[in-house]
Structures are given as structure tokens and as C-alpha cells.
Amino acid sequence: MIAVIYFFNVYAANWIPRIQNLLLALHLLCWVIIVVVLFAMAPHNPAKKVFTEFHNGGSWPSMGISLMIGQITAIYGSLSSDATAHMSEEVKDAGRYVPIAIAWGYIGNGILALIVIVGFLLALPSVPDALNDSTGFPFLYVFRQIFSTSGVNGLAAIILVPVIFSNILFNASTARQTYAFARDRGLPFANWISQVDTRRRIPVRAIALSCLISGLLSLINIGSQVAFNAIISLNVAALMYTYAVSISCVIYRKVTCPETLPPRRWSLGRFGLAINITGLLYVIFALFWSFWPPSPSPTARDFNWSVVIFVATFIISLLMYMFQGRRHYVGPVVTVQRVD
Prior knowledge:
The protein has helices at 2-11, 16-41, 47-52, 63-76, 94-122, 127-131, 138-144, 149-183, 190-193, 204-223, 225-232, 234-256, 272-289, 306-328. By secondary structure, the protein is mainly α. The protein has two domains: 1-43 and 77-223, no CATH class; 225-329, no CATH class. Helix 2 (16-41) packs parallel to helix 5.
């Protein structure tokens, strides 16, 4: 998979826009197929059971605590909604169209996801049985209640194909972010990482580095699933922290010195500050819950190691800033091409 990702991002980079269009079509087509299966072909639970019964799978003393911890999974499923921003340097009129893509992408996919979740819960015979299924994937448990093995394989393929295409685009986004941070002198070996291939006009070395890191993480998973889960558990906490920092800076500028903010092509209007404050409060709230384990007495395998990885990453980042960043990093490099 990593080899395929590297090939497309380096040797077929001109196809990326076409792949994005194809992914959108596949995404909608696969969504329709899954929705038809869940709503039209699967045996259903009563609607009352779906919308009024709750299952505390973490053995917490109250449903409220279980809900607060469980929301982190939903947040994890929404983490890619801002990926468009990483590609903004390659988007025409990015100040207008990148925010539009983020907003409508999030809202549109949120509606589609809600419909799928309702269909999934209607077709779910037993929550404990689904969670304890031998495959480790509750959606396969639901598919098995409807189809034979060949049917389950077909539906699983329908889900995996868009995931494969998405991985290609995820790497494109990650590589551009890596390149931009190296170009701004925020990473070690910045000159090497930020070099752009003069013939292809893409950051080949940043693409290769992101693929290499993905491969190393995969090797960790082979050796220890606990260690792998500990590393990827950092995602939600790290992003909530970065959102908190960036939104706080925007709020501070809006309140104390709004004239220093650059002109914007897309705005939240008069509700912008209230939305920023609400967003900041929620990401801090989510950051707090992202460090909780899934159950009151977790084992080493089930423990939420994100707090350990978060602190370690934070310390490493501070050391990088002390020894390199404060001497070389001067903030994002702004390159503007004016067209008269």
C-alpha cells in the first residue's frame, strides 16, 4: 500500500485531481450501496431500541462519563476534515475555496455518516456480540447477519476501495505539511526535506519521508499492537491541543488588535468570534477526555497511552525549539503571487 501511495504521489502527481474526483464518485456510490443494504436488506431492530436504549460498554459508573469518553471515537473519525488546508498553496484563491471545502465537506459527510450510523444500529442485533466479534470489526459482524462470506467480502471491498484512494490523498496532504514546516525551518535536516524536484515540481523527499514513517509505524504494529495503539492514540489529543493554540491566537487578535488580522476572502461574519470561543471551549473539553482509558480498570493493552506519548512529544518539541527553532524558525513563509 505504501508503495502504491508513493508511486501515485510522485510519478502520477498530475492524476491527483482526477483521483480526488474519482474518490468523490466512489464515496457517494459506495455510500448508496451500504445504505441500501442496511435499510432495505437487513433485519431491523425496533426504532425505539435504536433511539432510546443506551449501552455502557466501558463499565463506567454513569452513562454520562461513558458518553464523554466515547465521543473521542467520533472525533477521531472527523480528523481529516481540515486536510484541505494542507494543500492550500496549490489551490487557486485558497482564501475563499479552502474554508468552503472544509465547512461543506464536514457538514456533508456528517449528514451521510449520521444516516449510515442509524442504518447500522437498526441492523445491529447485539452490541456486546458485535464488540466481541472474532474479526475485531463490528461492521463485519452486522454484514454476516445479512450475507454469506462472499457477500461480506464484497461489502468489505466496497468500503476498502475508497480507503485505498483516500490513503493516496492523505499522503499528499501530509507530505505538503511536512514540506511546508521544513521550508519554514521547523524540522531537522530542513534543507534536505524541503527540496522540490525541479522536473516534477513536487516535494519528492517529503513524500518519501512520510511514506518511510508510515512503514516504520506498520513494523511497530507487527511487533506490538499495544505500542502501535499507544502511538496512534496521540492523534486526537495532539490535534485538540494544536486547535486550542491556533484558535486562541485568533481570538486574542480579534479582541485586542483586530487590525493586525490579514484580510479574509471567507468569513463567519458577526458570529465568528462567538463560534471561535465555542470551538475553543469544546477542543479543551475534548482534550481533557482524550486522555481517559476506555474502562475504569484498564490492562496494559487497553490503557490509553496518549497522555504518555503527548507529554513525550511535548518535551521533544520544546527541546527542538530550544536548540533549533528559536534560532532558525521565524514563522510561516508567505509567498504571494500577484496577478494584475
